[in-house]
Amino acid sequence: MANEYEQARRRKADILRQKGLDPFGHRYPDTIGADEARRRYETVGDGAPARVAGRLTALREFGKLVFADLSDRTGHIQLAFSRKVLSDQDWERVKLLDLADWVGAEGRLVTTRTGEITVEVAGFDILTKALLPPPEKWHGLQDVEARYRRRYVDLFANPEVREVFLKRSLILEEVRGFLHQRGFVEVETPVLQPIYGGAAARPFVTHHNALDTDFYLRISPELYLKRLLVGGMDRVFEISRVFRNEGISTRHNPEFTLLELYQAYADYTDMMEIVETLLEHLARTVSGGKTCLPFGDTELEYKAPWRRARYADLLEEYAGLVPGDDPAVRQKARELGIEEGGKHLDVVMHDIFEATVEPHIIQPTHVCDWPARLCPLTKRKADYPDIAERFEPMVAGMEIGNAYTELNDPDVQQEALGIQLAGQDETMAVMDTDFLEALKHGMPPAGGLGIGIDRLVMLLVNASSIRDVVLFPALRPRGGADGTGGQAPDADEAS
């Protein structure tokens, strides 16, 4: 049932129809942005023509003069509707305007007595009549859940939110440009996979009716990208949507954007150089040239090179543990309230690492040389078979990526995957024999890298929650019939 505000707006729409005008519009070509209109005035001065279009974000009536703020993606500019300038018919239509209406207007550029650059409207069209009013306080849809649930309102009620997503688009554009300059080729791999792999995560399961078989939404594009290395595509990357059927929190969303790249004849040290150089470039791009950016109460310095720290050294420094000391590791786990029964020592040790080490890694750091059991797709260090040539770039207490020297020995890979699969749900544990066969055809030595784009954007735009950088984050369905999402409780998710 429409409320009184909607009813009033519908009556205005009906009046427009009676006048032979469509309240839901038509094309309005040859417009310029609000910022260009301002520049035109500054260049040409009083009387310069302007034709603009956007949403009304303010209305102020002063008898025979009505001022309005018109906003578009470039900013806002003031409109002046004057009884002296407009025809009788146009002046009557001014009374049909409401906040949030989409309007096209043309006229000459002037300044008011207060110095505000303004379009003195000679003619205008109501392009779309908004049937619902904006939030009570135009300058902020403040309720957090409502902001995520009604992102379309959030974007026009809070211009700084729209700016975040424009920066996100710029970041993605810069990532692609950076990699193209280094000779990488962008590719696409399957979202629906008959066997999921490339990460330790629970997948979403779906069913293909025509084939009468289950498929999985990918948790990673890794194993397909490596097949391309086998095929001779020696520098490839993909910016993909991936899906992990796990928890939701300020740092986790069940679907997210992942950059993965692979470079033949490289190793994990080359991947470190790519990460720190890319992040320095992105920091300079979003900040206008600076490499030190704020995140919460901290200033983060992205200038390359980054600190490199060994996993074992950090564990000893912050947890007082030496890898391999089973009794000490399990005792520490019990002290921290970490479940350790039935878990392999390295898994318990990593749970402790996450609890005791990660919160202390604030400035950009490459955490290197991980326990091999945690890294089934990674080449081992020469002469140290228990250590994998893996690193995670960590910033502000969270890992933003994962990288390693790729394991390309098919026999060692089969053994490592077998160990990994032994600990999984038997209904989901399937060996990707086609991937192993591909390795037998020969995959060149390579380095591989994955970076979580959403967390990367969080850092670069100073956002405290991943939901602030995802246009439509996963939300718990509301009980109502509209089926829109609601907030799910925070829960930790495996990386």
**Could you report the average pLDDT, rounded to the nearest whole number?**
91
| Rg of Cα set | 28 Å
Biggest β-sheet strands, sense, barrel = 10 strands, mixed
Helix count, DSSP H or I runs of 4 or more residues: 14
Class from secondary-structure proportions: alpha+beta
Features:
495 residues, ten-stranded mixed sheet, 14 helices, alpha+beta, five-stranded mixed beta barrel
Descriptive overview:
This protein is of the alpha+beta class and 495 residues long. It is 32% helix and 27% strand. The chain is built from 14 helices and 22 strands. The protein has helices at 4-18, 34-44, 88-94, 144-149, 151-157, 159-181, 222-230, 268-287, 311-319, 326-336, 345-356, 410-422, 433-440, 453-461; strands at residues 49-62, 65-72, 75-82, 102-111, 117-128, 185-186, 192-193, 205-208, 213-217, 235-243, 255-264, 292-295, 298-301, 307-310, 365-371, 380-381, 384-395, 398-399, 401-405, 446-452, 476-477, 485-486. The strands form 5 sheets. Strands 6, 10, 11, 14, 15, 16, 17, 18, 19 and 20 form a 10-stranded mixed sheet that branches. Helix 5 (151-157) crosses helix 6, helix 6 crosses helix 8 (268-287) and helix 12 (410-422) runs antiparallel to helix 13 (433-440). Residues 480-495 have low confidence and may be disordered.
